[in-house]
Amino acid sequence: MPAALLPTLVPAAPALAAPVLAAPALAAPEIPCPKPKVAPPPNRPPTPVPPPDDPVGSAIGGDALATHGLVIPAGAKAPPAVTASTWMVADLDTGEVLGGCGPHVFRTPASVQKTLLAATVIDKLNPDQRITVAQSDLDIEPGSSAVGLLVGGKYPISTLWLGLMLNSGNDAANALARLAGGGGADGVRKTVDEMNALAKRIGAYQTHAVTPSGLDGKGQFTSAYDLALIARIAFANADFRRYVLTKSAQMPAQPQLKKGGFQFQNENKLIFNYPGAMGGKTGFTTVARHSYVGAAQRNGRRLVVTLLGAEARPLRGWQQGAALLDWGFSLPKDESVGKLVSPQDVAPATAAPQLRPAPPAAAEPAAPGEPPKVLSVVAAGSVALLLAGAPLILLLIQRRRRRPGR
């Protein structure tokens, strides 16, 4: 059991016992992540205050990942200097984590959250079905990215997926979320709830969605580690892989609205410039800064890179991703600092029954030699609390067993 959990699971030692306790071991100093020497833009808004670090959640995938600094295999060459606040490189197939910078640090996602929307509902929607765009679908932040849907326009679902992944259309995100949630006024909310439920099922415990598109919302966070888990689910879908590799697409004309069609391009330049690129997703808001999820294959090996909180100079988000992918491909296949948990690993924790303490009962006189019944109720509640938290503890212990520290 991790030492960090002990204060919540056992009574505190009496104050008088402190002098005889061994001094706690000092944590190893964090290794700074390589950063280019560039000044941040003067108009950058403050970073939203994240939730406090969770010592259990921060070690999911391996103890070495519980850091705000750099974690790479012993003896590996230094990764490239990037402006991303946090990043991670992992193997899409084996789940091995090759390295990262603060992989479990909370950051705001921007449009890479659209990969979670896709992972959640892409199998629920028929790509050949047509949808009529509602006024609420265009309820997006002024000036934010949109693919140009028209109220009353009729579009195939496949076109909306292309508008979402290529052009980062927030209007397309709203339309897809509304339809996947039943098509009513509460459709978007229902889909966002499903996105959060999926995140928990796959072990992305630091992800909380507020909007389907990634437009900023209070309390909306993710992590580089979580994005890799989400990307692993998304890239397992053939339609997703096809959409994110599409270089350009055509928005159909809307004759009933007397509007012509037009072409739009994929904003992820990795697919135009990186050999073996599999696609991915770009993201930006003034609060989140630049974010990126990308994947590539080389010599039978498929890697994914995730990064958050980057600036566009000296390298754009996809270029930082490309540099980190190059670094990852340069490492031997057996190098690893942790593991991406699988949904099967997480299932025992998420499916565990929620135990509730028995309702309080009126105290009754105790029989001779029998403890008061009110104490029995308290004891039962304590046991229930311990059992309710046990699945996540067991998941962490399982991860430590599988990935001994290096």
Topology (SSEs and partners):
Elements lengths: L5 H4 L60 E2 L14 E6 L4 E6 L12 H8 L8 E3 L21 E3 H9 L4 H11 L6 H15 L22 H12 L2 H8 L2 E4 L10 E4 L4 H4 L3 E9 L3 E10 L2 E10 L6 H14 L7 E2 L3 H8 L22 H30 L4
Antiparallel strand pairs: 1-3, 2-3, 2-10, 3-11, 4-5, 6-7, 8-9, 9-10
Q: Which key terms come to mind for this protein?
A:
single chain, 406 residues, alpha+beta, two-stranded antiparallel sheet, 15% strand, globular
Structure characterization notes:
It is built from 11 helices and 11 strands. It is α+β, with helices and mostly antiparallel strands. The strands form 3 sheets. Strands 1, 2, 3, 8, 9, 10 and 11 form a 7-stranded antiparallel beta sheet that branches. A two-stranded antiparallel ribbon has the order 4-5. A two-stranded antiparallel sheet has the order 6-7. The longest helix is centred in the last third of the chain and has 30 residues, at 373-402. Residues 1-17 form the signal peptide.
How confident overall, as mean pLDDT?
85
Give the radius of gyration: 24 Å
Shape: globular
Q: Given the structure, what is the number of helices? A: 11
End-to-end CA span: 19 Å
The ordered H/E elements are: HEEEHEEHHHHHEEHEEEHEHH
Secondary structure tally: strands = 11
Low-confidence segments, ≥5 residues, pLDDT <50? 1-26, 352-388, 397-406
Helix content: 25-40%
The major sheet is characterized as:
7 strands, antiparallel
Strand portion? 5-15%
